[in-house]
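Recap from last week: sequence in, structure out.
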Amino acid sequence: MTDPRQLIVTAAVAVLAIAGYQALHGTSRAPAAPAAHTPGGVLQPYMRFTGSGNVTMHPDRGTISFSTHGTGATLADAQAAASRAMNLLIAKLRSDGVARRDMRTDGVSGDAQPLNGDFSADQSLTVTVRNLSKAGRLLADGAATGAQSDYGVDFSIGNQHRAYDAALRSAIADARSKADAAAAAAGLHVSGVVSVDESQQQPFYERELSYAPAALKAVAVPIRRGTQKVSADVTVVFSYSA
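Predicted structure tokens:
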């Protein structure tokens, strides 16, 4: 007669062997639940739509770049001449209401002039203009004070995040409008948003700039700031139900 204890040991070994086989061959998982099917097996549970949004805003700030120039028998003399002109320029800009924090030195350079046997030096200054109504006066005063060259106005929107957020909301609304139209045509309705994918693009700005060179007298340069367009693109995945 077989010993009961031997049967228990044999059964335990068999169970362990089966468990080991399942672990090695990946058969210990529970059966997968049957996949959900849409009516008729035609429609997919999710649909994807793209949307574009644009907002047009007036720029509220700008930048102007000025440079001064100096020459001399030595590099120190040339640099001193450029510095004197720059100091006069900065003083004039300050009297026009430009804050110190809105002026930034962008470059200082100097070198020898072999043909002339002397030296030249240049200094550049970038000015942030927060009151665009003064931009034309700043350009004119800079030229009258002794700036060797100027460049601007480079317009921008101060709060670009707010502008882009508005364009983003418009883009999502555009995608939702397309989704609602498609759902209505199919006799369904949008039941939710699965994901929103923002296209990695920089805001696009349309610029409209017009200004004329300053006359010999410090006549304000006519400036037209125009408008700028900020754009956003998204891809939205929607879920549908009957």
